[in-house]
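Hi F.,

I've been meaning to write this up properly since the lab meeting, where we talked about keeping a consistent format for the predictions we share between groups. The idea is simple: the sequence comes first, exactly as it goes in, then the structure tokens exactly as they come out, then a line or two of notes. No screenshots and no reformatting. I'm using this chain as the first example so we have something concrete to point to.
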Amino acid sequence: VQLQASGGGLVQPGGSLRLSCAASGFTFSDWMYWIRQAPGKGFEWVSAVNSDGRSTYYADSVKGRFTISRDNNKNTLYLQMSSLKPEDTALYYCARVIPDGSVDYWGQGTQVTVSS
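Output, unedited:
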């Protein structure tokens, strides 16, 4: 199983980024999460999407600003982030969800830095 996150970078407050997560080594039909870790802080669940992409869930901190989606034909998970704030600065990971809601595989993470 491999999860390769990309698309991070440096962006000004109010800007946008789209993260991608390329999945391989398994049937891309599991629920997926985006999780982040800000500098010096613990992990924070950001968003979830079900197997067909029709059901999505968000942390209150990103609701209305971030959109999770997936393309099962391309085995790729996305996170469209807009109206970015400095507090969104973190290492963003994609992760595969197992039936009990925990995760078993993580990607290597992609850094998002929101700063003027």
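Notes:
Residues 93 and 109 are 4 Å apart (CA to CA).
The mean pLDDT is 96.

If this format works for you, I'll send the rest the same way.

G.
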